[in-house]
Amino acid sequence: MTTPVDVDWDELRQRAVLAAQDAYCPYSGLRVGSAALCDDGRIVVGCNVENAAYGVGLCAECTMAGQLRLTGGGRFVAVACRSGTGELLMPCGRCRQLLFELGGGDCLVDTPRGVVPMSRVLPDAFGPEDLP
Ligand code: THU
């Protein structure tokens, strides 16, 4: 994996807020957007897509994982999640696992504590290497 030295966090955060504008969230009313820098330098984004059967709604990071695959694959290098009004949001537990799968422990995450690696956002994660 090639990790770009510089991450333009302002750009990533702005792209997350922009993606949140496309959210489908008639039930929670919370627009969520995520944006990730990929290891080839492109940015992929996602937004939450809710459902009348509440439990099957999709988080922003989930649709972003699909976008990663649909637009050329690769790995997440840096991730930012924001509400539609610009507040920082942390990925939920399930989404941390999704991000770990496609970015690993070195993927950088924008958190209230600053930018930290996924290994600190999801410590001792279960991952592909734990499978026989
Ligand atoms: N949500 C996300 O999109 N990502 C997260 O990591 C946390 C929660 C969405 C799911 C739901 O549509 C709304 O936020 C309220 O829970």
Q: How would you describe the overall organization of this protein?
A:
This protein is α+β, with helices and mostly antiparallel strands and 132 residues long. The chain has one domain (4-121): 3-Layer(aba) Sandwich (Cytidine Deaminase, domain 2), CATH 3.40.140. It is built from four helices and five strands. The chain has helices at 9-20, 60-70, 93-103, 118-121; strands at 32-38, 43-47, 76-83, 108-111, 114-117. A five-stranded mixed beta sheet has the order 2-1-3-4-5. The longest helix is centred in the N-terminal third of the chain and has 12 residues, at 9-20. The two termini are 23 Å apart. The model has no long low-confidence stretch (mean pLDDT 96). It binds tetrahydrodeoxyuridine. Tetrahydrodeoxyuridine is lined by residues 25, 28, 30, 32, 48, 50, 57, 59-61, 91-92, 95.
Q: Topology, pairings included?
A:
Elements: H1 9-20, E1 32-38, E2 43-47, H2 60-70, E3 76-83, H3 93-103, E4 108-111, E5 114-117, H4 118-121
Parallel strand pairs: 3-4
Antiparallel strand pairs: 1-2, 1-3, 4-5
The structure holds tetrahydrodeoxyuridine.
Residues 25, 28, 30, 32, 48, 50, 57, 59-61, 91-92, 95 line the site of tetrahydrodeoxyuridine (THU).
